[in-house]
UniProtKB/TrEMBL annotation:
The lineage of its organism: Bacteria, Pseudomonadati, Pseudomonadota, Gammaproteobacteria, Lysobacterales. It catalyses: L-glutamate + ATP = L-glutamyl 5-phosphate + ADP. Substrate binds at residues 59, 142, 154. This is Glutamate 5-kinase. Belongs to the glutamate 5-kinase family. ATP binds at residues 19, 174-175, 216-222. Keywords: Amino-acid biosynthesis, ATP-binding, Cytoplasm, Kinase, Nucleotide-binding, Proline biosynthesis, Transferase. It is found in: Cytoplasm. The keyword Membrane does not apply. GO terms for biological process: L-proline biosynthetic process. It comes from Luteibacter pinisoli. SUPFAM superfamilies: Carbamate kinase-like, PUA domain-like. It comes from the Bacteria. Transmembrane segments: none annotated.
Amino acid sequence: MAAGFTEQPLPTWRRAVLKVGSSLLTTPDGALTGRHADALAAFVAASRRAGREVVIVSSGAVAAGRGLATPERGAGLTGRQALAALGQTRLIALWQTFFDAPVAQVLLTHDDLRNRRRYLNARSTLRELLAIGAIPVINENDTVAVDELKLGDNDNLAAIVAALVDADVLFIASDIAGLYTANPRTDPDAAPVMEVAEVTPEHLASAGGAGTVAGTGGMRTKLDAAIKAAAAGIETVLFDGRDAACLGRLADGALVGTRLRAPRSRLAARKYWLRHAPSAGRVTVDPGAVDALRGRGASLLPGGVVDAVGDFARGDVVEILAGGEPFARGIAQYGATDVRRIARRHTRDIEAVLGYSYGETIVHRDDLVVLPDAARLP
């Protein structure tokens, strides 16, 4: 077993985000290598064969670009941006060599995740990529990001992406076996931490900074990511991405590393937020839509919408009413004006009526919660 860690079960999951750090994709001198990516890709492939979905958040573009430029280049912000542009294509090409399925490059910026409309666009794109069987490989768009608006590190980005795609678990592959009570590289008395119920200030205080030249994060950023993921009800697991045997066990549902739990399940956290978030308007639906949403767990389509009340925008939380009573709540994929224009229409008519389309749903089933007392509705 890895450095004192013993085997424990993984949380149950259907969709996951796998974060892979630069240290696992580069040689000590910074060149791109597939040495450890091979076993990581085998884990992804095995998970996909089991019917699960995996989104990869991969560092390594700047390091890969550094191998293509002269040593004196790459200093400062513009230098790093140029290295990212050079290296990103090589990084995606590396991942594609391990899969028969298509690999899709997705580059995100701070603005993509801050702006609600762009956030939803990114979410819709990732959902579609997963639906068609592609493997999204995500990185921050370092080519255009500026220091003031950078997401900071890919551990943080991975936690945001996990919430974005409604992941059940966040896998963080590192060059260390998991969380310890102290830095195991400098403290011989450091003991492995198998499980964390909740990350505390004491955990953060024991975490260090970046461990390698290629990396931008350390255990502290991983714990910060786990805190963000836990807020969305997503568990985080830390493990040694260099250990092929560890990755083999991971594919079989066993973790040799640290499991950082979330206070409540992903579904419970999301339902709680949807139930209590301020609503910006109301959507009235017909009995057929009530049956589809309440009985079959379906999405709300335009054909079942009777009317929209209020001035809500795309991305706002709305109440869904039947017979004048709210029975569900969800995130609107269209603004109020658009909903009124496409109400009672077939999904194939959306683009013809509006001149554009954000998809066929008014409220996607992943963004919808039926209220506890909805069973009283006829």
